[in-house]
Amino acid sequence: MGGHGLACRFATLDILAADPPDGPFHFVFDRGCFHLFDEPDERARFAAALAPRGLWLSLIGSTEGPPREVGPPRRSAREVALAVEPALEIIELRSSEFRDHGALAWFCLARRRTMPAQSSYGVVASD
């Protein structure tokens, strides 16, 4: 099969410690780091690592399922949406699992926004 001429480079980065070299990126994969980005400025810094309309794929610990002693920190779908939406646009959010832990997870695919999200407050429904 012929290639599509796409280049791919893998790197492990701490984007909160320093600006990533060779960024911004068209795709970022995050497995288990989402729980660290609790502050709006940290989320904005994470989103800034993406090129315009760049994709972010994250596996996030879910509050679904039975109580557990091990595995990733847990977040509800609402917490995921509230954290992601200011800087990124959610394309897909669905239930998944961390196979090596057997813990339920959220599969969240989002892209960097080209314009800020619009508030739903003040919108009046018409008949």
Give a verbal description of the structure.
The chain is α+β, with helices and mostly antiparallel strands. The protein has a domain at 25-112: Rossmann fold. The chain is 13% helix and 31% strand. The chain contains 2 helices and 4 strands, in the order βαβαββ. The chain has helices spanning 40-48, 77-84; strands at 25-31, 50-61, 88-98, 103-112. The protein has a 4-stranded mixed beta sheet, covered by helices on one side. Strand 3 (88-98) and strand 4 (103-112) form a beta hairpin. The longest helix is centred in the middle third of the chain and has 9 residues, at 40-48. It is globular and about 40 Å long. The N and C termini lie far apart (55 Å).
Characteristics:
four-stranded mixed sheet, 127 residues, alpha+beta, 31% strand, 4 strands, Rossmann fold
